[in-house]
Amino acid sequence: MPDFTLIETPLLSRAAVDRAEELRSDTDALRAGWADALLLRVNHRGQFRVADGDLALEPATSWSGEPAAGAVFLGLRGDRHVWAVRVPAMTGELGDLRMLGHRLDQSSAGLATTAVALLNWHDHAGFSAIDGAPTEPTMSGWSRISTSTGHEEFPRTDPAVICLVHDGADRVLLARQPSWPPRMFSVLAGFVETGESLETCVIREIREEVGVEVSDVRYLGSQPWPFPRSVMIGFAAVGDPAAALTFADGEIAEAHWFTRDQVRAALGAGDWASGAREGAEAELLLPGSISIARVMVESWAKAD
Question: According to the 3-state scheme, what is the secondary structure of 58-119?
Fold first, then answer.
């Protein structure tokens, strides 16, 4: 089978946000822009208000009269500043990226993805990793400063590889984590360790999770994954279906080689959510549309 490429851009990689980095430290410009700014409220579950299937942005002045402590500057929508804040609770119609990511346009997807990831980082960065002192946000939410030493820390993104293992022909290896319901399978993934290249991580993770040695590791694409603050870096690799599958590290409950016809049938049935909701008895349920895993599987299935 010839090498395949992603047939489309992963949904959360479509960000079309003007981040306007030059404004992050311009206190005067941010204060002046606040009067006409838009605000995205996000609760601790990563939910935001929606209206007509899109983000429900509201006037920033409904929150405070000027840029507020804890608010993060996302960038520009047109010529209007856009900020996000964490809130304890909200009323009205709520949604999150898993539910609505496929319905958001490029601008809204970028704003929501950035807001959720950045606010998640702030939730866990209240104390300096260097000296343990409390930290305070600066640069309109794009860094934090130690109140003891002035050491500056920046938003953390955890890199993870995600790999579609195939046999070079008509079969793909899919796995299920112990916490997933039966019949829910996806491609394999794992976090990059310190001092490790991405390609080395792919080989190690596949070996650790299912006991298969892979070769021909090839980059496919990437996608932000703000759950809580990762970036998924997609690869394809070739494995041997005759190799014994072993689950030594406990992260995988079961794994199987599926044919292209089986995968195509599963793709036609929808995704995890639709399959579970409808009580379908399909042998295979695949990831939802906002995941790069879905695009990887679809791309492989169509590369005939």
Answer: EEHHHCCCCCCCCCEEEEEECCEEEEEEECCCCCCCEECHHHHHHHCCHHHHHHHHHHHHHH
Any idea what the Cα angle at residue 233 is, between residues 232 and 234, rounded to 5°?
Answer: 110
Of 108, 127, 116, 55, the closest CA to residue 86 belongs to: 116
Strands annotated E in the chain: 38-42, 48-51, 54-55, 58-59, 72-77, 80-86, 94-95, 135-138, 143-146, 152-153, 158-166, 171-176, 188-191, 215-225, 230-238, 254-259
pTM of this structure: 0.92
* DSSP code at position 204: H
Q: Which residues pair with 73 in a beta bridge?
A: 83
For residue 263, give the H/E element and its range. Answer: helix 260-268
Contact (CB, 8 A) for 11 and 290: yes
Alpha-carbon distance of 140 to 156, in angstroms, equals: 16
H/E run at residue 210: helix 198-210
**Type of residue at 229:** R
Residue recorded with tokens 């960038």: 75
Between CA 219 and CA 261, with CA 174 as vertex, the angle to 5 degrees is 95
Residues 6 or more apart from 44 whose CB is under 8 A from it? 86, 88, 123
CA distances from 19 to 81, 186, 265, 284 (A): 10, 33, 41, 40
What are residue 253's phi and psi, to 5 degrees? -85, -40
pLDDT at 92 > cutoff 80: yes
Question: Helix or strand or coil: residue 189?
Answer: strand
Number of H helices, E strands in the chain: 7, 16
For 180-208, how does the pLDDT look when each residue is reduced to its tens digit (9 = 90+)? 988 999 999 999 999 999 999 999 999 99
Number of neighbouring beta carbons within 10 Å of residue 35: 12
Task: Please say whether the beta carbons of 67 and 25 come within 8 A.
Answer: no
Token pair, residue 198, equals 């991405």
